[in-house]
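User: quick one, fold this
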Amino acid sequence: MKQRNFATPLVTAMALALAAAAPVHAQSNVTIYGIADVGIVGERGGADGNVTKLTSGPAASSRIGFKGTEDLGGGLSAFFILEAGYSIDTGMQASSTMLFNRQALIGLKSTAGTLMLGRQTTPYHNTLVAVADPFATGYAGTIKNTFPDWGTNVRTNNTVMYASPDVRGWNGDVAYSFGEQAGSEAAGRQVGTSFGYSNGPLVVRFAYNHKNNDVVGTPTTPAVIRGSASNKLLAANYNFGVIKLFAAVGIDKGFNAAPLGNTGNPYGGVPPTASTDGREALLGFTMPLSTGTLMASVMRKDDRTAFNQDANTWGVGYVYPVSKRTSLYGVYGSISNRNGAGYTVANNSEAGSGDRAYNLGLRHNF
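Assistant:
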């Protein structure tokens, strides 16, 4: 054990939580879970040249989490989730400022639905992961390559979310994130919702995201008025048995509706600009192949601003399970940018630096 060498108080706090988990587990039904994922990532085509590196979380961000439930009687239960990201290639925390950067929430669940309070993922992001993307927002083929799955489109702080129970295949959720800026109830707040149908081989879901980008002024800084942004997403998949087909379309409007994953002008020349009026579309599939799964998708980004910075992208990959919890994978993704567009081949943990990339890795769930 080398806990005495931990460098930050946040990591020390995590170690204490781990140490306390064993005795608590017997009393309060607490579970430790997580993902350890690492891969060789090769990026090509960026302004700084070719990059080959060992990366944590190309398929799914490496994480460790704690979750627990307590039966309150009468069909009501309380629960919590605390989930922290880490880099398995370095042992460092994924965030230098937050311990539980992925999720930190508490809630109540009954037959009437589930209420959750804290830091959590948005209905928009959950729809991308569970319905829209054959790569589940991971690997070099991720939907992040053109759909705006970045920033507060993914997770929000200070959030209250309600998820309905399933009624004959129909269910929905709604989330409200407080802006918490003194002097304004509207500035910085975000609202999201999704609803859909899932029955047998068919899954269909619509998601909506709306955020206010204004910043309240202070005695020393002026107010910043940026207006609102919105994202609309319609996604579906259908499992034919021999193949599972995926389709998704998105509409983004307003400042910060579609933030770029890599804002550092990775190709040089014309600076890429985040679209304030855009459309995205995806077609993809997964299918059993030998003992593994073949995944593929094609996507189109249609920027309707005067910059007309469009992009086309495709990805293909194969996941080979060596056990129920451990898999090997190989994935390749490519993007064709137009008019100085700055879309990069990302993965689940990184925005990427080029217009082509491959991932060769190992993932273990625990």
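User: anything notable?
Assistant: The mean pLDDT is 93.
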